[in-house]
Amino acid sequence: MTEQSSPLERSLVLTVSLANVEAEVAKRLKHTAKNIRMDGFRPGKAPMKIVEAQYGDQLMREVLSESAQGSFAAEVQKQGLHVAGAPHFETVSTRNDHGDYEFKATFEVFPEFTLGDISAAEIERPVVHVEEADVDRTIEVLRKQRTRWLAATRPAQEGDRLKINYKGFKEDIAFDGGTAENQMIVLGAGQFLPDFEKALPGAAVGETRSFDMTFPDDYHAKDLAGTPVRFEVTVNEIQMPELPAIDADFARMLGIESGDLELMRTEIKGNLERETKRRIQTKLKDQVMKVLYESTTVECPKSLIQNEIEGLRESARQDWRMRTGKDTQGVELPAALFEEQAKRRVALGMILTEVVEKHALKAEPSQIRAFLQEEAQSYEDPEEMLKWFYEQPGRLQEAESVVLEDNVVEWAMKTAKVLDKSLPFQELIGQTA
């Protein structure tokens, strides 16, 4: 009989045959006796009583656990229950009136819910065309990434790279973190505070400049925020930039073996168009997920939320380790930091599953292949990359999930109100300057 203690929590009392458990334990003890090595005995010749004394309790726990799990799986299948998360088992009786074991399994089930109506929801679809000017800007970025730095004998100017020594003083006392030697700085790149950088144009090699400035009120070092200071800066080297010419050699740098500039522009434009498609799809997907989440009320199983919180915690730890190089062992991040995000992810997972099932959405093999072919175009050898994708089951499953989500987005776009909005490429990618 199933007991209900809350809307999603259930409990079952399960019976496990004592005779079957003891028979399985005896079978495993015999197998163990044949294969273990014990001091003072030849392999497989240890007395059964000694083997039982050493391994009996462990094997009994294993068999009981497996039997309880098996009984639980059979019962939930029989009752048609959709279990969310792992059940919790506790012993009710080691021997009931029939000489059997009794366990109580407490677990949660997935909720029943109705998908919200999104027909009145508005989804904004960016309409973006990659122009030749966008290709030109991209080429300039690629040139700057391949800048050569040449020694300059003239005074420093905007765009130059300087090697400097500097020391900062607060009330004529050098402050912590305000001193460096042979620090590289590109004037105008925004690496340093604007008031620091603007004091350096016109300086010559070997020159020392002293200037006053005030740290911004929102400066990250609280003891310096809003504080007037003085810096002394010595210029050790001045290097001026030399960008590569847009010629056949430059095209070859970008992987165009023939050096054909038109082919280079065509490939760059193709890359930008693929990036445009990805960005638009991401914006649409974010809006669709928001609409589905806000239009549907669903109660989330606590066990799934907790599992999601643990996953988010671990991701945060890994991210911190990668960015700082510091060990996060023993660092406890409060569950409250991740709870809302975890609830949203669990709810969306159930909502998407319901949409897929209700509207019979599938990721067709042809869609998966088309998706992977497009992904492969970003690599030097697309055919080899496509082959690699198909050799990795995990990668195929990931592609299937992405395609399925794209199909949900397509369904939502046909159901909700779609408003097209023209957008420049630069705005789409977040570059408005």
CATH superfamily membership of the largest domain: Trigger factor, C-terminal domain
In whole angstroms, the N-to-C terminal distance is 67 Å
Radius of gyration: 33 Å
Order of helices and strands: EEHHEEEHEEEHEEHHHHHHHEH
Provide the number of structural domains: 3
Strand content: 15-25%
User: What is the architecture of the largest domain at the second tier of CATH?
Assistant: Orthogonal Bundle
Which class best fits the helix and strand makeup? alpha+beta
In DSSP terms, counting alpha (H) and pi (I) runs of 4 or more, how many helices? 12
Low-confidence stretches: none
Provide a concise account of the structure shown.
The protein is an alpha+beta fold and about 425 residues long. About 45% of the residues lie in helices and about 20% in strands. It starts with a strand and ends in a 5-residue tail after the last helix.
